[in-house]
Specification:
single chain; 213 residues; alpha/beta; Rossmann fold; 12% strand
């Protein structure tokens, strides 16, 4: 970031404190009574608004010949033209589902039934849905470090990384994730650090420091 805006990092490194994006871990044990696609299991899911930035079209292209793998896109349509382009290719492939906007309980239920959550965006910081999916024991595929802070959020340690501009790279990451059992074991410290409580505590400490208290 400093490089992008012309700042010398060494001169400002002691003037800021990074605060992690976080999720509400208290909701991880949601019980969903109104399930979306209730008979579907072991699928690829992307939870994101339908728009070019989120790169859903590349996921369909990457799995075009793997029609036995269901693809679920969970999110509101933000770009009608792009949505129609995806839908046209999805109809040709088959086994692709669009849920539209859904509530948190329904989304968390989908995470639990999915095999892998894919977020091959061209920019994320980091993509809260990836953290949510990971904490719901779902394999993850994310864009490489140039497009997402994968090291800070340890996505490279617990998931699979790809180049969002490379269909073959996306395909390889998704298929590799399918071969890995869903037995992700996150340490308790991961849940604690990327939680709302820690986010609030760290933010409050920064305010106190700024105010000299």
């Amino acid at each position: 970031m400093c490089k992008d805006i012309g700042l010398d990092y060494k001169k400002v490194e002691n003037k800021f404190i990074p605060i992690p994006n976080a999720v509400d871990v208290s909701k991880l044990n949601f019980e969903c009574t109104e399930k979306i696609l209730p008979k579907l299991n072991n699928f690829v899911i992307e939870a994101a608004g339908i728009e070019p930035l989120k790169n859903q079209l590349s996921i369909v292209k990457a799995l075009m010949d793997k029609k036995d793998i269901p693809i679920v896109f969970a999110g509101a349509v933000r770009n009608e033209k792009y949505y129609n382009e995806i839908k046209k290719l999805a109809e040709k492939r088959g086994n692709v589902y669009f849920t539209g906007k859904i509530d948190e309980k329904q989304l968390f239920d989908l995470y639990k039934r999915a095999n892998v959550h894919v977020l091959t965006s061209f920019r994320e910081s980091p993509g809260l849905v990836t953290i949510e999916a990971l904490m719901n024991n779902c394999q993850i595929v994310v864009s490489k470090e140039k497009f997402c802070p994968i090291k800070y959020y340890k996505f490279d340690k617990y998931g699979f990384v790809c180049n969002p501009y490379d269909i073959k790279s996306i395909r390889r990451a998704i298929l590799d994730s399918f071969e890995k059992p869903k037995n992700i074991k996150l340490p308790q410290s991961y849940y604690e650090f990327f939680s709302y409580n820690n986010f609030a505590d760290m933010t409050f400490d920064v305010y106190k420091k700024v105010l000299g208290k």
